[in-house]
Amino acid sequence: MNQTASPTFASVAAIEDAAELLRKANRIVVLTGAGISSPSGIPDFRSEGSGLWSRDDPMEVASLTAFRTSPEKFFNWFRPLAGYIYNAQPNAAHIALTELEHAGREWTVVTQNIDGLHQKAGSKHVVEMHGTLRTLSCTECFQQFASDSFIQPYIEDGNIPRCLNCNGILKPEVILFGEQLLQSAWFDAQRVSRQCDLMLVAGSSLEVLPVAGLPMQALDRGAHLIVINRTPTYINVRADVVFMDDVARIIPEIAKRVLHG
Ligand SMILES: [Zn+2]
Asked: In angstroms, how far is CA 46 from the centroid of its own chain?
């Protein structure tokens, strides 16, 4: 059996249950985390087994304070991750979500990921809770730049990207540890979570606050909940349907049922 094999008999009923919830829903929020990017080859830098970060604790090198005091240490740590992100392509889960989005209901993706893979797959409504690697901003003059011409040379030679105006250090517009979320993103995420009638958690262990609280906001207003994540989450007990499985295997199965019966 390979990764794309049909779901086992036991989960066929669950796939149908999830598909039925999606068919009936009018306003859907998909909350995604590192688990939806790992099938695209992007490691979850928070998880200990990722093997990439044995030398440095990400909480230390990727904090806002660390970035300010020793940016070269941050850029050194971030370089392999930036390489993975830069080369990654959307996987079957991103693509299936995009197909469902284009099928016409009110649909918002709220993501904890910084890789832009939902947009690469064609998703139109994406709230990026932890910012994005697509843009950089100058720490001195605050000018914003598209990452494209800066990121590749940085990945190749390791040199810190510098502002074209003032030579200040450019910071990827990602939210570092200890850095406040963008207010607009957080407000958007809360609004859609409170208004949705179905939330689908896909590849998030719901361990990072405050994003982890969004399913509670949806449930408290009567929304249904589907959770697809390899490991248990705190909210599984309140979910209508739970898959402890790979999102790239389960989401395309659900989408197929929703879109093609
Ligand atoms: Zn500048």
From this structure: 13
- Residues with a catalytic annotation lie at 130
Report the separation in Å between the CA atom of 64 and the middle of ligand 1, taken as the mean of its atom positions: 18
pTM score of the predicted model? 0.91
Ligand 1: distance of its center to the CA of 161 in Å?
Answer: 11
Residue with tokens 């080369």: 87
pLDDT in tens, 83-115: 999 999 999 999 999 999 999 889 999 999 999
CA angle 179, 210, 231 (to 5 degrees): 115
Is-cis flag, bond preceding 71, omega within 30?
Answer: no
Maximum pairwise Cα distance, the chain: 61
**Cα of 75 to ligand 1 centre, how many Å?**
18
DSSP 207-260: -STTGGGHHHHHHHTT-EEEEE-SS--TTGGG-SEEE-S-HHHHHHHHHHHHHH
The sheet with strand 131-138 has its strands ordered as 144-146, 131-138, 170-174
150: CA distance to ligand 1 center in Å? 14
Per residue in 190-235, pLDDT (tens digit) is 999 999 999 999 999 999 889 999 999 999 999 999 999 999 999 9
Tokens standing for residue 129: 């809770």
